[in-house]
Write a structure and sequence with these properties.
By secondary structure, the chain is an alpha+beta fold. The chain has helices spanning 60-74, 117-125, 169-176, 178-201, 253-260, 279-297; strands at 15-20, 24-29, 38-42, 47-48, 51-52, 83-85, 96-99, 103-104, 109-114, 131-132, 135-136, 146-152, 155-156, 165-166, 204-211, 213-215, 221-223, 233-237. The protein is 28% helix and 23% strand. The strands form six sheets. A five-stranded antiparallel β-sheet has the order 1-2-3-7-6. This is Phosphoribosylaminoimidazole-succinocarboxamide synthase.
Length: 301
């Protein structure tokens, strides 16, 4: 696995740093009306192939934060969410939210309506049965194929720098109990159904997404983390969808393509991080995130 090195998390007055992921920094608020709750800050960092790049994408943290907030709001009839406030310290205004501290379930709730990525790898590796997370799928599917119906394909959370690992539904039952597992699967599929429908109306295919849920002290299940951003989901332009190849997508595909091209001079097998991104790759990537935000929410950035 590539070693992940992160820049030091910024110091924020009134908050104590707890944890940094590849893209986000998590703090505990130490003063104010929400003392004891969490401050989740989305940076402009970008990661590909589990490497965090040295180059950042301007406004990415704000775009993803806004997109996530918009979706939380759209989904609130299906499941409560963890956001308490967007009134955050000036240093991180626009790209941070105050959220309830939840006891997170140790399962990445992934749902797929289309086959690609690790789902496709599992599908191929389990030939001739063709299954993903123990769910049997039809023969003859290709990269980007639409599944007969969306499937819940949970994964375990990996440490920084590691890949998440797909697991069976039974493994989720063992981790969180049968009742919780059924609840998580039901909520995940309901969120997908709603979001997929909304995206489709806007000419975007929601191929798959990953949700994280947690429990309030009273046991109620709440949607946490970020939701339906290009960092946690695959969004494809519907007009360009052609199963049988990798699909164009509204995310860091421009960066991935550049890194793998001869132009970058990067050797993926070297174990070294990709080189800094050229300015035009940064700008095109930023534009892609803006486009996704504007298309989905109907709002100008
Ligand atoms: P990466 O996503 O880079 O693989 P990561 O998941 O460790 O790594 P982040 O996603 O940046 O890093 O960190 C967010 C962390 O906060 C995750 O561990 C997530 O489960 C947790 N989290 C999200 N929402 C809440 C919440 N409301 N209460 C407690 N923890 C939360
Ligand atoms: Mg995460």
């Amino acid at each position: 696995m590539p070693p992940v090195t992160l820049p030091p998390a910024p110091t924020i007055p009134g908050a104590r740093h707890l944890h940094s992921g590849k893209v986000r920094d998590l703090y505990e608020l130490t003063e104010g009306p929400h003392a004891g709750q969490l401050l989740m800050v989305a940076s402009d960092r970008i990661s590909i192939f589990d490497f965090v790049l040295d180059t950042t994408i301007p406004d990415k943290g704000e775009l993803l934060t806004r997109m996530s907030l918009w979706w939380f709001d759209q989904l609130s009839a299906i499941v409560p969410h963890h956001v308490l406030s967007t009134d955050v310290p000036d240093a991180v205004r626009g790209r941070a939210v105050v959220c309830e501290r939840l006891d997170m379930y140790a399962v990445e709730c992934v749902v797929r309506g289309y086959l690609t990525g690790s789902g496709l790898l599992d599908y191929r590796a389990t030939a001739p049965d063709h299954s993903v997370c123990g769910i049997r799928l039809p023969d003859g599917l290709e990269d980007g194929s639409r599944l007969p119906e969306p499937v819940f394909t949970p994964a375990t959370k990996a440490e920084l720098g590691d890949h998440d690992e797909n697991v069976s539904y039974e493994a989720v039952e063992q981790t969180v109990g049968a009742e919780r597992a059924a609840e998580l699967r039901g909520l995940t599929l309901s969120v997908y159904a709603r979001a997929e429908e909304m995206a489709r109306e806007r000419g975007i295919i929601l191929a798959d997404t990953k949700l994280e849920f947690g429990a309030r002290p009273d046991g109620a299940t709440v949607l946490g983390d970020e939701v339906l951003t290009p960092d946690s989901s695959r969004f494809w332009p519907a007009a360009e969808w052609h199963p049988g190849r990798a699909q164009p997508s509204y995310d860091k595909q421009i960066v991935r393509n550049w890194a793998l091209s001869p132009e970058s001079g990067w050797d993926r097998s070297s174990g070294e991080a990709p080189p800094p991104l050229p300015p035009e790759v940064v700008e095109r990537t930023r534009q892609r995130y803006v486009e996704a935000y504007e298309l989905l929410t109907g709002q100008r950035f």
